[in-house]
Fold these 2 entries.
Entry 1:
Amino acid sequence: MNLELVLPILIPLTAGALSLALWRSVRLQRFLAVLATGLLLAAGIWLLLSTTEQGFLVVEMGSWPAPFSIVLVSDVLAAIMIVLTGIIGLAIAVYSLASTPRGHEKFSYYPLMHLLLAGVAGAFLTGDIFNLFVWFEVMLLASFALLTLGGERAQMEGAIKYVTLNLFSSAIFLSAVGLLYGMVGTLNMADIAQKVSSVEDPGMITVVSLLFMVSFGIKAAAFPLFFWLPASYHTPQVAVSALFAGLLTKVGVYALYRVFTLIFTQDVEYTHTILLWTAALTMLTGVLGAAAQFEFRRILSFHIVSQIGYMLLGLALFTPLALIGGVFYIMHHIIVKTNLFLISGIIYRLLGSYELKDLGGVYRQRPYLALLFLIPALSLAGIPPLSGFFAKFIVVRASLESGEYLVTAIALLVGLLTLYSMIKIWAEVFWKKVPEHVTDLSRLNGEIKDKHNWAYFAPVVGLAACTVIIGLYGQPIYLLAEMAAEQLMNPQLYIEAVLGGQST
Amino acid sequence: MENMMAYVVGILFAAGIYMMLRRSIVKLVIGLIILSNAANLLIFVVSGLTRGAPPLIPEGASEVVGAVADPLPQALILTAIVIAFSVLAFAVVLIRRAYEVVGTDDLDKMKDTDT
């Protein structure tokens, strides 16, 4: 029994239930939020350590033998994702102490947050395709409620789009699972991977694989299915935005990585070419969308879309180096993107707006905050020596080695345009003078002191430190990504680990 | 039988998507309901329809005897129905709240958050 494999799901679920029991005491809920996410991070690190040591960890639920039971599987990629979930969870929990309005805290903000983390962790760890659907729904339901907490007009409009497209994607996912089950007669992903090659009509497998691609593509916000993301991510309060930005789309990306390296590798030529152009167009539309925006969080939302393109590119090229790049990119992106959202929240706190035209003068009053913004912003654009540089470098190098020159050119251009967007934010928010129509400067000038300033800054500083460490001390991270990619390139290892080497 | 059910599934998907493309948010949710039912029925049909053979192990035996219906798709559908039920309950509350806050049920008038 590998306890560390179950803990990342068990901790948030228990914490969520306890938080509900402590409905009346917001203080205890807050304490529990920080404690549980801290434990989640610790469990994640434990999981990563033992996964890198043993290669794969497998737990069969109820001790039924593998193809019949629901299995939890952890390979290096899943373990990395769990650690990232822990980091983001902890950062958001601490940040929420200061930023979440009292009314939201009273109406089950913390239980929902725990439930969301449980759903995300479950989706990363499960080895059963229908169970993946269930965890997706757990995560979605929590995210629906978090998105609409507060009930403002923009939230309602955003939520309708978000809910509709995500439910639509779930329906496609469910249909695809059904069709796949009809062909191979099993739900265990390792077992499916083993049996998929013996299906009479390989064309049908490709059709089903495209259904999965569309479904996960919607969840990952890939071109042309990303419209729900920029319409909804800027509407909830900022800690929720940051949590979504860091984790939710990446679950879709992870599912694509899992399914298109393990199961649907019989027609790589066809499926991965579609993925390649999806990736290129995702990058391009995302960054062009961002260029047209003048609202802090909308710019960042469009950049999520464009960054998803790089991760898909890593998968689409399907060479060992490209997968290393993709995994590295996910690690870098989750940390950086969450951090940028958190900073936008601090600036909202100072000046009371997300519109660039209402912001300004932050550099003069808060030079250290400007520095904290520059670290993730430049990292996002891929400036050395920060984490984004190495992530982009590996992906671009992999695509050059595969001879995809046009896609490489797009990737480099998108990097440049990302820098343009970041400079736009820098110039408008930090560099220019405070606009004259902004009158309430008491917070910016430091006349009103916040009691919980540390809770705003501790997560931002911590995440910025992660970015710098990944950049300056990248070798161990690269080795980790290399191990993950190696396992992804050899699905046979996964199958043997889950099914114990037995043949059917 | 399976052919007929296949057509039913197809019609349900088409009807669901048609409803989702309407402008009213109420019809949008009805479309989602039909769509999730279509997906459930699809699972049921593709995993094979077997009549009159419940997957019960006779007393004293350790395996089922003869051809029996596959119990797993039914378990899947049951799970999916429960999930769809809760999610759609949320969606119904959401459209009600949205109608109260926005003051219209026309999706074309909910463009504030679009770009």
Entry 2:
Amino acid sequence: MRAMSAMKRAATETRTEMIKANWLAGLLALALFSNAQYQGWNLFGHEGSSQTARAVAGRGHHK
Amino acid sequence: MKRASCPSCGAPVVFRAASSLYVVCDFCRSTLLRSGEDLQNIGRMAELLEDASPIRIGSEGHFRQRHFTVVGRIQLQHASGLWNEWHILLDDGRSAWLAEASGELIVSAQVAVKDPLPAFSTLAPEMPVTLDGRRFVVTDLATARCIAGEGELPFRVAAGYDVSTADLRGNDRFVTIDYSETPPLVFVGQSVALADLQLSGLRDVREPAVAPAQVATRALNCPHCAAPLQIHSPATESIGCESCGSIIGVDDENLSLLSRAAQALREVPWLPLGSAGRLRDSDWRVIGFMRRSSISAGPTYSWSEYLLYDGQQALAWLIEYQGHWNLARGLSNPPSVTRGEAKFTHAGRQYRLFNHGEAEVIHVVGEFHWRVAVGERCVVDDFICPPLMLSREVNERESIWSQAEYLEPDEVCTAFGITTPLPVRRDVYANQPNPLVETHRQICRLFWKLALAATVVQLAFIFLIASEPVLRQRVVLAAENDEATLTSQEFVLKSRARALLVRHQTSVVNNWLSVNTTLVEKNTGEAHLGQQEISHYKGVEDGESWSEGSPADELVFRAVPPGTYHLVIEYELGSDSSESVVDTIEVIRNPTGWSNYVLLLIFLAVFPLLSRWRRNSFEARRWHESDVGDEASGDGDED
């Protein structure tokens, strides 16, 4: 039916951009998430720092 | 079948139906009463008015797979026009009636009803009536005059015979109560489409493929200004003269001036009268134009209605308001909706009341299938289920339902080949489809797909790329030692760790603990430092328990090279409590956290929430135009 196709065409034009943007952003977010999980990134985690200074061992004791 | 000769003129007459008591002679129009083997001439029947109905005596058709033949007709006239009641004989010997009025066909047969029938004077349009347990609603009240008859008839018909009838509808049944006899006669039937009757032997029948441009027309002149007029539809009862604005009644071949140049408003229809086009699989011709206006309290608004005729039987309305178009047709199976009902379900769709008001005809041009008049008023209720809208128009005599379907303006232009600019579309119309419903639905589907993918990735990290505990050690801090430095057991990282999680699970309560953790590689002495404050306080105040802080904390070292490691942990214990503290230290290589997963889901949910907001904004704009309140709600929700 021509009316249905006309309505569908108008609706498609309206939604295409948002759906495309959603696909793109969703896939990027998924990729970022996968990488973050692989790297062990955590937005709320407390991160230690690296340094090359030699630590003095033997000051403590095992319990 | 009984054959006889007309006692008046000698012409052969035939009684095909056993129920037929009368026959009108085709030649001399004598009304003949069957009395045993004899025929008695009881008078001359008046001439039928020419109405150009395609049906005639002898036409054949099918109803519910049963063959029938048209054997007689009575012609009735009431205030708004003519209608035919065709007497049909079914092959099983029973007879019924095929009513033909205003483009609608109804097959009905007389039935016996046990319930007492309401008096005609007590009926009003939209009034509910229960007959034998079934609920009907009064849709039309008419007092018609039988003007003529032909062929075989089961009762005597005389010109000038008045018939008061009430039409009722309920579910898909149509009931006519004929008050011309005592007790009243009840006929039950249903509306049928012309094509479904598979009629043959029609008069002047046109093939459906014939374009409306070829529809036969009658040319006449306005009795007031002599301007040329055309009649396309046999159902036409009145014409609005484009030239002088007079409204002319159509009776047979005669015209009568109903309203002399009385129209103050003159408007040129955007779609010219006579325009032909194909819309929704039917060929249409524009035969009438009407401008109607609301007369309810508040701002008045007006809209255009074009009457379309398909060249055969069907009539439809093309309605335009603020650039929005609808194609409306009469509803033969209207819903049973009482006044004030705001919601109902019809044909599987739920409709909601959108507008309630009174409408008035302010301008008419062209043909109409009833005696139209400027100033004609009715109460209108619009119920919507986009792209459909059901409208109920009630006046003092009848209740009419129509179903409108929203059309894109381009479709109207294309259908009628109009090149002049369209009326500008403004706002959101009552039954305008919300394009964002489908968008929202798709975005919700996309959300679930992406969420599923994220879950699969998360589960893969948990189960396939497993995190590995490399150290678990329990340390007890005595309360009397406010500072202590401890070295953990050694552990080995065979390969580079992307992340190394150090978790302190302590038993600290109402105290604080400062923890400086140093990850030290045994051979190179390379150190990674981390500092944490752990504090945990809880208690009961005014009968309510409270808690602050946490007894556990985590620390992550990134990109830790392979090697043999141990932790050097410096504790400083607060003096708020005298309890010893137990710290369970866990070191986990490549831990999989949930916070990223939760963040991702929150991010992905933004899109459906946004599309939902946009969809609801459209609905809010739609309902802003409603006079029954803002009911913007989330139809089509699937999130």
